[in-house]
Amino acid sequence: MRIDVLTLFPEFIDQCAAFGVVGRARERGLLDLRGWNPRDFAEGGYRKIDDRPFGGGPGMVMMVEPLRRCIRAAKQDAAAAVPVIYLSPQGRPLQQARVRELAALPRVILLCGRYEGVDERLLAAEVDEEISIGDYVLSGGELAAAVLVDAMARLQEGTLNDAESAVQDSFEDGLLDCPHYTHPVNHELGTVPEVLRSGNHAAIARWRRQQSLGRTWLRRPELLTELELSRTDRALLDEFRRWQEHPAGPDTD
Ligand code: 4HQ
Description:
The chain has 253 residues and is α/β, with parallel strands linked by helices. It has helices spanning 10-16, 20-27, 64-75, 96-103, 120-126, 142-153, 201-219, 221-225, 231-245; strands at 2-6, 32-36, 50-51, 61-62, 84-93, 107-111, 129-132, 186-187, 190-191.
């Protein structure tokens, strides 16, 4: 997959793929990440890319033309249409389902705004989709773009090892992940649940599924309303809820 990122700070984007899973995707040739600086497409000695907002008010607005030329350059050798995505709090909140769809595309262009944002005419004419990474304010779109690059890169076929397989992740089945433990078994902060050391793979799978269901119910109940739980899942969740109400078990009340 090729991702072109338009930003006043292209070095920021280079850092995205410098290490870890995203770095590995790039090393393996599964990710082609390119930075473009709209300032390189600005005119005049000052190479001005922003100006004051009409109507007054604080801050600056990124101008149409440098961005338009930059988008044109990034699209230049594209075989087919490349979607342009603008990162902004006004966008659709990012979810794993959309990450999966975008990660399956051959190319995307990510547009990062700074200051108060981008002239609305550029957004209307050139942007296909606005995405938000959450209801908070960043000082620029770069961190949001980095989030999207990371989430798409790790889904590129051949990026994750078997051990890192994406199928078990939070959200892949609409549920939060289960708890994880490693050595030592006994620690002053607690003991590893017996079932995980039992070697009983069916019991382990059942426990993990139950923990995923239970945590989703406790922490993100709205996620459960979007799922059609199977009879088995409903039984697991009911049992979890009963434990939640009577932690020491039904015998001791
Ligand atoms: N910004 N999700 C304002 C964000 C943001 C977000 C990016 C700040 C765009 C102009 N982007 N600039 N939240 O806060 O994506």
